[in-house]
Design brief:
The chain is of the alpha+beta class and 316 residues long. The chain has 3 helices and 20 strands. A hairpin with a 5-residue loop joins strand 19 (246-252) and strand 20. The model is unreliable at 38-47 and 269-281 (pLDDT under 50). This is Zwei Ig domain protein zig-8.
Amino acid sequence: MAALNAERKFLNGLKNMKSIILLILHFSCGLQHIIASSVLNINDLASMDRPFFDDISSRNISAVVDETAILRCRVKNKGNRTVSWMRKRDLHILTTNIYTYTGDQRFSVIHPSNSDDWDLKIEYAQARDSGIYECQVNTEPKINLAIILEITAEKELRERSSGKVYFDSKARAKILGSTEIHVKRDSTIALACSVNIHASSVLWYHGSAIVDFDSLRGGISLETEKTDIGTTSRLMLTRASLRDSGNYTCVPNAAMPASVRVHVLTGEQPAAMQTSIASATDVSIVIIIACLIISDILLIRVLNLTQRLTVHRSLS
């Protein structure tokens, strides 16, 4: 009789323990889901508030000598950030928001009230104004949009507009290798494109900005080679980081461009997400392992008790 009472008590305790284990597992999964969802929502909100360029205008602008050239720049979600225009050849800041920081009065910003437009206007444009200009937003990291301006004589521009100087539609660049590249962090990104004509120049873009060989990042090199059938351009970036991910475009002069997408693999989530989700995952794993161990111990005890009861009944 005492043995039967002990068996009932133990089985009741086992049922209670099983309920507790299921409750712990359910709570752990729910907690992990809540933490992961919260982190994702915070990251989504942060990315929504981040400024970006509404890149709807051409990045190659042609204008006639002594006329007005306008370089378009539309910034969404500007907030309290600053929009600046910089001339690339001498790194001169021409404007900041609506203010002009150059003695050349031909430069100014067109910014209609309550608009997203921050266009650079150059009056009485001259051949010396040709070159690369960057529209920049002082985010962290900084984002920029490069515009190539070419000032030509009226006759030359008219010839281009009539199609006499435009490149043949068959002239185009081609990415050598896959157009989707995956590289490990801290390794070297090697990109190459071939052009089926002898292009006078080849530029590389990362997103909407020209790859800057003089940036603080360093480790960027470009090699352009003329071959019998055309031109080959090779871009190399050492010590790859997550910021190097994105779309790269090979833009040859007088030929159609080609793009390749680079994915830098870090083996981890973005910083905020990684810390929170990883810690929640670790806790969940520990809880699950503990529950499995407890279940195994209880199962062994049940088996032992069952054997004892069987022996006891057979002796009785």
